[in-house]
C-alpha cells in the first residue's frame, strides 16, 4: 500500500529524516524537496516485497534483507541493498520510486553514504543505533551556517529561526570563527536585558573550539562533554565544513539515551537530577531486553553517568558560590575503575579522584568533593568500598606525578595495587591540563623491572578452575563474574596497553591496540587478544543477564552468579573462557619469571 507522505498519518517527515545520515547533511531546501518526492509504503508483518531500483527508508517497524535487520532510520535500495525483503513486524517505509530516486542517489551526500558508508562505516552494532566509536563525525554532521560579527543579535536569532538551527558561526577577520548559540541568546541577551540591536560579537564565544571531521563521533562527543559545550564546528584542514551537536550524536545512538542525557544535563536542581539518575538502571535493562549487547549498553550508559557527574559538579559549584565564590582554580575530576573504562554494569559505584591546580585551595575542593559524593550517592552510585573517592584522594598535579613515580621506584604490593586502581583514569570534568600525569603514567611501560612486577601480579590471580577443569565457586556456590572473570582479562589488557603505549582506559581499545611496543615486544599476540576480547564481551553479557534478573526480582545488584543458574552451554563457555585465561597466563608468566 502506498500514498504520498503528506497524505498519510505519519508527521514530521523532515524532523525524522534529519535525525539520520545521510539526510541530515542535506540543506533544508533539498530535504524539503526530498520529502515532497516521497511516498509511504505499508507492509504487514511477514509480508515480502522487492527492494530494487528505488530508495527505501524505514520509518517505523523492522525489515529483514539479505540476512541483515534494518530498523527505523535505516536506508535500503539505492542499487546497493537490493533483493526480496521481509517485514519483521508491521512496517511503514518512505519510498522514492525508481523514476524519482535516480535524481537523488547520484548526488552527495547520498552517493557516498550508499557506497562507502553503508558497507564499511555505518554497520549497525545494535538495532536502532550506530556505534559512535566507529563512525567518523563527518558522516553525521549538518551544513554550517555563517553570519557576521557585526550583525545584531536579532538578525542572528532570525537567521537561526529561518534555518531551524540552534547555533550560528561568525567569520572573524583573523580567519578564526566565533559561535552564537540559542543558549547565548537566552542567557546573555534575554536574561541580561540587552537590546535587540546588540552586536552578535558581544555575546559570541571566540575563538570557537573546532574538531577534524575525521574524528570519531564518540571522540567528538567526549570532547564536547569535556569542554561543556553542545555545538562542535568541524573542519577539514583549515576549511569549516559542518556542525554537530551533542543531541545529534546521542539521538543516533538510541533516542532514549539522548533524552536521558539531556535531562541530566538540563536538571535545574539536585532533586530533579537524582530523579533522572535513578531511572538509569531500569532504562539500561530495557535496552538489554530489546536485544542490545552489554558492551554497547555499558558505553551508552557511560554517557549518561558522565552527564550525571558533570551536572552534579555544576550544581554543587553553584551551591558553594554564595559562601566560597566560584571554583578558585582549575581542576580535573577523574573517573577510575569500570566506569572510567566504560564497562560498568547496572550498579556502578563511585571510583574517582580529584586533581587541583593549587594546594592552597584544598579547603574549597574538600567541600566540593564531599557534597558531590552525597549527590552521587542519592543518585544511586554507592560509595567505593575501598574508599577510592575524591574526598580522600585529592592531589595537585605535581603530587599525583610524584606518587606514580614513587610507585614505579618501589614496586611493593601496595604500589602494584595502586597501579591497578589509578592507572585506568578518564577525566570527566574540569579544565586542568593533566598531560603531565598521563606522561608519568605511561612512562611505566618503559620501566622493565616494574613492568615485570606488574605482569606477575596480572598472572597471579588464576581463573576459578580445579585440576579436573571444573569451575570452583565460593562457599555459597556462587561465581564472582567481576573479580574471577572480567578482572583477569582487564589486568592482562592493562599491562599490554602500558607496554605498547596505549593511554586509553577502555579494555576493548587496549586489546585492539597494535603498533610499536615500547619494550619491543608485545605482551599479547593479536590472535590471543581477539580471543580475550570475545571472552570479555561474553562475560559482560552474562553479568548483564544476571543483574537484569536481580533487578526484576527486587534484589540487590551484584556480580555473584549462582552456579545453579547456569545453563549447560553457559557452563561450557565459561570453562572455555577460564581455560583460555589460564593458558594465556601460563604463556606470559615465564616471560617475567612468574
Question: How would you explain this protein's 3D organization?
Answer:
This is CBS domain-containing protein. InterPro entries: CBS_dom, CBS_dom_sf, cNMP-bd_dom_sf, Diverse_CBS-Domain, DUF294_put_nucleoTrafse_sb-bd, GlnD_Uridyltrans_N. Keywords: CBS domain. This protein has about 600 residues and is α+β, with helices and mostly antiparallel strands. The chain is built from 22 helices and 21 strands. The strands form six sheets. It has a five-stranded antiparallel beta sheet with strand order 1-2-9-4-7. Strands 3-8-5-6 form a four-stranded antiparallel beta sheet, with no helix packed on it. Strand 17, helix 14 and strand 18 form a beta-alpha-beta unit. Helix 21 (about 525-550) packs across helix 22 (about 570-590). The chain is globular. Residues about 5-10 and about 115-130 have low confidence and may be disordered.
Considering the chains and any ligands shown, give keywords for the structure.
22 helices; 594 residues
Quick structural overview:
By secondary structure, this protein is α+β, with helices and mostly antiparallel strands.
Estimate the global geometry from the Cα principal axes: globular
Derived from helix and strand composition plus strand pairing, the structural class reads alpha+beta
SS element count, helices:
22
User: Helicity, in percent?
Assistant: 40-55%
Distance between the termini: 69 Å
Please report which band the strand proportion falls in: under 5%, 5-15%, 15-25%, 25-35%, 35-45% or over 45%.
5-15%
Q: Unreliable segments (pLDDT under 50, ≥5 consecutive)? A: 3-10, 116-129
- Which radius of gyration do the C-alpha atoms yield? 26 Å
InterPro entries: CBS_dom (IPR000644), CBS_dom_sf (IPR046342), cNMP-bd_dom_sf (IPR018490), Diverse_CBS-Domain (IPR051257), DUF294_put_nucleoTrafse_sb-bd (IPR018821), GlnD_Uridyltrans_N (IPR005105)
Domain CBS: 204-260
Keywords: CBS domain
Organism: Deinococcus xinjiangensis
